[in-house]
């Protein structure tokens, strides 16, 4: 699935980033789509050893269940992109980045964001993979 999306230029290339968010993690939703708390239930394109929990990092496309928020969104399954993680990860230029919280934004099937603004900083790795996020991001780190 991820390979097909990259061929159609919907998302950018995947970089090797420390995976800090396993399946089951509850994360904050940082956009104004109406969701507040999301729980990761799957990671698109994850390939790992048998019986290992899939985990996600900044810029990954994840399948989430909405746990808190507007009544029409709660208990629904959505797609989201991780924009911040607390686990430190290293960039190509050597700097180590770590955010204060774990956060994601909900996206539509065409990989554009559902909300019209993103609260807080967004990692540059997420913007490189999903360029549509740059239009609604308030700050890119």
UniProtKB/TrEMBL annotation:
Organism: uncultured korarchaeote
A GO BP entry: translation
One example GO MF annotation: large ribosomal subunit rRNA binding
Any one GO CC term of the record: cytosolic large ribosomal subunit
PANTHER family on file: 50S/60S RIBOSOMAL PROTEIN L14/L23, LARGE RIBOSOMAL SUBUNIT PROTEIN UL14
Any matching Pfam family: Ribosomal_L14
InterPro entries, per the entry: Ribosomal_uL14, Ribosomal_uL14_CS, Ribosomal_uL14_sf
Known function: Binds to 23S rRNA. Forms part of two intersubunit bridges in the 70S ribosome.
Subunit structure and binding partners: Part of the 50S ribosomal subunit. Forms a cluster with proteins L3 and L24e, part of which may contact the 16S rRNA in 2 intersubunit bridges.
Protein name: Large ribosomal subunit protein uL14
Protein's UniProt keywords contain Ion transport: no
UniProt xrefs under SMART domains: Ribosomal_L14
RNA-binding among keywords: yes
Lineage: Archaea, Thermoproteota, environmental samples
Family note: Belongs to the universal ribosomal protein uL14 family.
Alphabetical keyword list: Ribonucleoprotein, Ribosomal protein, RNA-binding, rRNA-binding
């Amino acid at each position: 699935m991820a390979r097909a999306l990259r061929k159609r230029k919907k998302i950018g290339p995947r970089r090797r980033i420390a995976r800090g968010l396993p399946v089951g993690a509850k994360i904050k939703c940082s956009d104004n789509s109406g969701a507040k708390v999301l729980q990761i239930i799957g990671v698109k394109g994850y390939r790992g050893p048998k019986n290992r929990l899939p985990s996600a990092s900044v810029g990954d496309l994840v399948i989430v269940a909405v746990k808190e928020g507007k009544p029409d969104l709660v208990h629904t399954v959505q797609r989201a992109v991780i924009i911040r993680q607390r686990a430190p990860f290293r960039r190509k230029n050597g700097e180590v980045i770590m955010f204060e919280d774990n956060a994601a934004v909900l996206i539509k099937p065409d990989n554009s964001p559902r909300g019209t603004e993103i609260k807080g900083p967004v990692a540059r790795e997420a913007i490189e993979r999903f360029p549509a996020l740059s239009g609604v991001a308030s700050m890119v780190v």
